[in-house]
Amino acid sequence: QASGVTVSDEVIKVFNDMKVRKSSTSDEVKKRKKAVLFCLSDDKKKIVVEEGNQILVGDIGDTVDDPYACFVKLLPLNDCRYGLYDATYETKESKKEDLVFIFWYIDRNKTLRHCTTFYLKSNAIMRLFSGIKHEWQVNGLDDIQDRSTLAEKLGGNVVVSLEGRPL
């Protein structure tokens, strides 16, 4: 607990499910989350999974053509969020998957106070997300729309494709 904020058990379960890539049946793989957003509960005391704002691995190629672009569209333009994105990318040597913790810190005049509080509470979630290699604070669409910005976070100029799309 930090700043009086707790993290829901569901958030911890989602993180652990995304972090551990155990052998699974194809049906289990399809149900695994590719991306998910977290927000503060209505009473601002708990970090919770935001209902309806997720992408499942099974959605890709079915209802989702480009998971990265779809994830960007999930981000609200007038509020802050935490996100986990399971990035699939290739370097010149190999194909990789890494979880990226994204702190969507949209700075608008009407939400500045709320987002500052949100930012201060991010320690509560980060302490529980051990093993995350990549953290990314994003301050607006200009920072995240171009997939090469995420590729830079993942490995700099050695990344040649993200989500099967060349950079």
TrEMBL record:
PROSITE patterns: ADF_H. GO terms for molecular function: actin binding. It comes from the Eukaryota. One of its GO terms (biological process) is actin filament depolymerization. Keywords: Actin-binding. One of its GO terms (cellular component) is actin cytoskeleton. Residues 4-154 form the ADF-H domain. InterPro entries: ADF-H (IPR002108), ADF-H/Gelsolin-like_dom_sf (IPR029006), ADF/Cofilin (IPR017904). Pfam families: Cofilin_ADF. Belongs to the actin-binding proteins ADF family. This is Cofilin 2 (muscle). It comes from Cyprinus carpio (Common carp).
